[in-house]
DNA sequence: TATTTGCACTCTCGCGGTGAGAGTGCTAGC
DNA sequence: GCTAGCACTCTCACCGCGAGAGTGCAAATA
């Protein structure tokens, strides 16, 4: 990293803010004029040349203004930016919306994503709350035909799994029900490991054993964040960003659009991201090509884990062009994490 | 409708097919050359003029070829097109994919949508199977704080609803559990109306009454298709269609893209559509501006209800530019409905 | 009368040229 | 070390133009 004099910092900061605002390469004189710098545009140009050496900014072509690089944004986020907290009005509005759906837990995720999308005019993504470890709440078995049954499983975090059971011998609904009754009592609140132990320690009929092992397998798979759904909201907002609808040659633009859409459609990307995130480390910013995903070269992510360590939680965040209002995005994501945490605490009875 | 001589039909059919293939206004001579017509291009031009009178086709500008209008597509779909069934290989491949996830009901919806999207290179949408009338399977109540509890409801169709209960007086978990036990026995398999009746006929404690009425309300709401989720798959495919990425002036194109995206993002649109569909009438085609939705002026839908009348079902279909391979789309949608119906029949034990 | 041939006409689209404007880098002077 | 001045470069929007595609119509033909 090149040495960053206070003046360089001042200029870089102004440049990034201006570019985030206008989406247009920034000229030296614009900086002087709009940001009241106490030195001339020629001096600014010297410094800009320096910043360009350090790969913090670049010129799209000779005699265009400067644009921040990913590295430039990174420096901005780490050292220059300040988080712009939500206004009290905004906070009130958000709280009010959650108040209206307070009883319907299913709505929380959608509302959170939708709030983020609207506040930031970008796409928001979010996984529903999941327990870190699958625990059984209750299950039912329904006879379908002589040799098949239908197993419905409710987990402690509210997830439901449905599964078909293929039976070895014909079994009546009655027998299934009594087996279910007995196992429900034994296995309630138990995790995959505990279920397995209990299965070994008890003398069970073949049906009970089949049901039990199936349950254990499902609980095990549940911990795996892959293959899980996530909500997207505000994808259109992305299309309205100038880099996807106005700026630059048409061909590049539609390529950009395609890439973002592809990423957003991959069901894998958020869960995969989860494993890359440093453990519960507050709001995290991933800028453009910093991650290994090729398709994400021109987008940035602001994400955070929400929930309660070791109990239940998920991921939420926004995705947009690298030219993103980081200060505000971080504030919004942080605030929504907090809201979700409080709601979860209330409904599951954790202490904050 | 203008009189449609066999020759007009022949020409219209060729024109629509050619346009669906090339996405380019079709010239009279192209028709003669590629479709082996037994008369000259001048004759074709006469007929084209006639078809244009009838608003079945139009010219983007003088001296361009012709393009079908929505009305033209409609005539094509109703009278000229033939459904192109899936090849045996394709059928086998699909069956095989479902075979692999046969036990995981959660995967069916996603797989169905994904198959349709891939087969047709367009966006696919699908609602998860829902019972026509909500019926209770089982519920649990968990004490959270002294004055609040957490209600988890499993419906017969596998839906789960979670809801917070605010209690009037402090109640212990034990009392909640016994209330739940009693009510579970009373209300199992019951619909909203039946639940209400049972609540009146039995002498219940205040808690039991609170739980019961909450359950009734939730069951009632469940019938309402609005506010329900639906899956989207293959949205990127739409962007690859020439009308959204290559053809015509850039400005119109991005406007088109924005519109489609907006429609696809509206959570309301599929459920709202459901109510407009003629009852269980096989595969239905909605072309461009035929419906009242303004934003859907340039897209077509091929949708169908799936499931079993009066028991359980949902909606599935594809959405793409009006220039859509209707024959194939209809075949695919029809086939997938059939697959879903069979799967549902197997797992819920209906007779076909 | 129905069709075809021949042809003039119209409109789009892609191309190269061009000039204004923006913004730079450099140099000389303060 | 900073600034004013200036020549230089590159983009971008605009224009004009010619080729080509496809039509509509009139006259010729079966």
Describe the fold and architecture.
In chain A, a hairpin with a 2-residue loop joins strand 5 and strand 6. The relative contact order of chain A is 0.13. In chain A, helix 1 packs across helix 4 and helix 6 packs antiparallel against helix 14. The first copy, chain A, is an alpha+beta fold. The first copy, chain A, has 14 helices and 11 strands. The first copy, chain A, is 51% helix and 18% strand. The model of chain A has no long low-confidence stretch (mean pLDDT 90). In chain A, strands 3, 4, 8, 9, 10 and 11 form a 6-stranded antiparallel β-sheet that branches. In chain A, strands 5-6-7 form a 3-stranded antiparallel β-sheet. Chain A has a two-stranded antiparallel ribbon with strand order 1-2. The radius of gyration of chain A is 26 Å and the shape is elongated. Chains A and B meet through helix 6, strand 5, strand 6, strand 7 and helix 10 of A and helix 6, strand 5, strand 6, strand 7 and helix 10 of B.
In short:
By secondary structure, chain A is α+β, with helices and mostly antiparallel strands.
Write the layout of secondary structure elements.
The structure is a homodimer of 352-residue chains.
Chain A: H1 6-22, H2 28-35, H3 41-53, E1 57-58, E2 67-68, H4 70-80, H5 88-100, H6 105-120, E3 123-126, E4 130-131, E5 136-145, E6 148-155, E7 160-166, H7 173-187, H8 192-201, H9 206-223, E8 231-233, H10 235-240, H11 242-245, H12 250-265, H13 269-276, E9 284-287, E10 299-308, E11 312-321, H14 326-348
Antiparallel strand pairs in A: 1-2, 3-8, 3-11, 4-11, 5-6, 6-7, 9-10, 10-11
Helix pairs in contact in A: 1-3, 1-4, 2-3, 6-14, 7-9, 8-9
Chain A binds a DNA duplex (30 and 30 nucleotides) through α3.
């Amino acid at each position: 990293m090149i040495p960053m004099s206070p003046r360089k910092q001042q200029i870089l900061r102004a440049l990034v803010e201006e570019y985030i605002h206008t989406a247009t390469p920034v000229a030296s004189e614009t900086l002087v004029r709009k940001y009241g710098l106490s030195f001339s545009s020629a001096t600014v140009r010297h410094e800009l040349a320096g910043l360009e050496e350090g790969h913090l900014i670049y010129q799209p072509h000779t005699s265009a203004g400067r644009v921040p690089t990913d590295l430039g944004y990174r420096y901005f986020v780490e050292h220059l930016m300040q988080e712009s907290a939500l206004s009290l009005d905004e906070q009130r509005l958000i709280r009010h919306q959650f108040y209206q759906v307070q009883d319907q837990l299913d709505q929380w995720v959608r509302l959170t994503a939708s709030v983020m999308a609207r506040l930031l005019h970008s796409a928001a993504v979010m996984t529903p709350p999941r327990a870190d470890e699958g625990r059984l709440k209750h299950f039912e078995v329904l006879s379908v035909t002589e040799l098949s049954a239908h197993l419905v499983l409710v987990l402690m975090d509210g997830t439901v799994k449905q599964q078909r059971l293929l039976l070895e011998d014909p079994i009546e609904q009655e027998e299934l029900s009594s087996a279910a009754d007995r196992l429900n009592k034994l296995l309630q609140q138990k995790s995959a490991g505990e279920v397995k132990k209990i299965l070994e320690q008890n003398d069970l009929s073949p049906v009970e054993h089949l049901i039990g092992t199936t349950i254990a397998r499902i609980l095990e798979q549940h911990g795996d964040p892959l293959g899980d759904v996530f909500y997207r909201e505000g994808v259109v907002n992305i299309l309205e960003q100038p880099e996807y609808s106005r700026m630059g040659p048409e061909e590049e633009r539609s390529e950009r659009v395609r890439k973002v859409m592809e990423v957003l459609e991959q069901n894998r990307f958020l869960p995969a991201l989860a494993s890359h995130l440093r453990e519960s480390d507050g709001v995290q910013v991933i800028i453009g090509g910093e991650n290994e995903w090729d398709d994400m070269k021109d987008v940035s992510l602001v994400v955070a884990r929400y929930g309660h360590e070791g109990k239940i939680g998920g991921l939420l965040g926004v995705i947009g062009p690298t030219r993103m209002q980081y200060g505000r995005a971080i504030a919004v994501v942080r605030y929504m994490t907090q809201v979700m945490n409080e709601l979860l605490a209330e409904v599951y009875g954790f202490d904050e």
